[in-house]
Amino acid sequence: MVDFSAKIIPLHLNPMGFIEGFTRFGAPLQALLRNTGIDKRMMADTSARISYQQQATLIRNGVALCGKPGLGLLIGMNWDWGYHGTVGYVVYCSPSLLDAGEAFLRYRMLTQPFYAGSPGKPVGYVDQFDTYVYPIRPFPWPYADAEVRQFELEYRLAITLRFWDACGNKSVSDPSVHVRLACPRPAYAELFDGLPFDTITFDADRTVVSAHSSFRSEPFRLFRRAQFERLLAQCEEELRQAGVEKTLSDAVRAYVSTHFAKQLPLAGAARARVQPISIEEAAHAFKMTPRAFARRLAVENTTFRKIVHDVRIELTLYHLRSSKLTVEEIAEITGFSCVSSMRRAIRSAIGQSLSAARAEAR
After folding, report:
1. Cα angle for residues 153, 158, 164 (degrees, 5° grid)
2. Interatomic CA distance for residues 272 and 332, integer angstroms
3. How many CB atoms lie within 10 A of CB 171?
């Protein structure tokens, strides 16, 4: 659990982006910083850290002071990727949207340490007609009011659409991006027209962005792979120095989750079995021998096999509860040999049948 009062967020990254955005749209700096515990001297210090309570106060002040409808959209549309830290620059060199998205999931804890508590959690899923669906969720503030939540939802929608527009493959047969919003059409709906999407639906059952899986998975910036790999190496070193990732098992969980995520579109489109991942491959990725790798995990009371199993179960449950794929299709894309095998694994993990797990989510 994250201590929301602990000063762990780098002020010069996401919080500074919000400060720039709010002042751009009319908030006086002194009033914006009131009761946040942030002063101008801290803003020039790259080692300064603030808490989630301070960040929440900053956002609440900004929303109140600017008083603009659709403020989250406006700030998201003008957000500089550098406020995500080094990983923000993958928007310029990632070979595909899939690569860029996995990099953000891996290294977002450098900007927002809250996410260190959920390594490898699935965020998107494959649905019918080889569609990739990405739910838009606001940050889980324990004390945010409705205006702050609406601001953040719109901010996340705006930067997600810009991210997809920069990193998605527009040369595939269907590059269209679709938005569904679980809210009524607002009075400022014209602001949405400035975002890069093809269709938008209000009053939907949930808030998601979607596109054909090929838009996400097909590489198109092939000559930038070396730049991308150097950027990831730098992010990995920053992660090591920051000490945000506390255990090897957390890092391995994120690695295994990425392995599954990279094969989801391939399995959904080509109906190919998910390729297994060996302990030798994983150990090599972490620059260890398989024996040393297994010993390190044993010290943390786990095994590579258990991590792979747990990630597969979580991914399976996520698809059961989110997508409209059949259980046969879900078994296929999550690497089970058959539905019966998946059924036994789910019952063992959560004590429920497949149908009960799916019905509960509905």
Report:
1. 120
2. 8
3. 10
The Cβ of residue 303 has, within 10 Å, a number of other Cβ atoms equal to: 14
Torsions phi, psi of 354, nearest 5?
-60, -45
Q: Beginning with the edge strand found earlier in the chain, give each strand of the sheet holding 131-135 in spatial order.
A: 125-127, 131-135, 208-212, 177-180, 199-201
CATH topology for 247-361?
Arc Repressor Mutant, subunit A (1.10.10)
The reported pTM is: 0.91
What residue ranges do the domains of the chain occupy?
Answer: 1-67, 85-223, 247-361
For residue 58, CA distances in Å to 26, 35, 74, 265, 350 come to: 14, 8, 17, 39, 40
pLDDT 10s digits, 175-216:
999 999 999 999 999 999 999 999 999 999 999 999 999 999
State the number of CA atoms in the 13 A half-sphere of 185 facing the CB.
6
Per-residue pLDDT tens for 151-170?
999 999 999 999 999 999 99
